[in-house]
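Z., the sequence and structure:
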Amino acid sequence: MLQVRIGRHLTNQRTDAVAMNVLDPFEVAEIEVWPLWDLQECEGRDPEAKKQLNAAEYTVFQRVLKESSFGAVLNEGDIAPCGRTKLPPSTRARIIPENLYEQRKHPDVRIARRATTIASLARVISERKVSKGLRRTLMTQARRLERLATQRYDQISAKVPTVEPGEEV
């Protein structure tokens, strides 16, 4: 069940994050999950289960927000405050094969993909009435692109000797 849900999120089946261009699944290399095994058999409308799930989602959201170097999460909307809860132990794993990971992590590939994501997200925003959260996501994606492009430029600049005017090459 958990594997199916993760797959849906990353393949645009029943998820706004991919459909609205909030997230490029190509950039997702690892996932971390906090399985709530005691809720596995609960009905979707069980109010107590829903309360526990909402508290877990809010707790994870706050943790990720705090750990973000941008103080932001790529999420269309905010998670409603509903109190925090103790989370079960998490499991974190890479979800793509090593050869794809090596290819996808190249900064130039990431810059191109991120620029495309930003353009697509900006198009969605221009065509619809959208939430403040979606506009915040656009700003966060732009900040992420700027950081990545700056890091790549600095990396390349450090490898290429500069020649001052008047110097011989």
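Helices lie at 2-10, 16-19, 47-67, 98-104, 107-127, 132-159. The mean pLDDT is 85.

Let me know what you think.
H.
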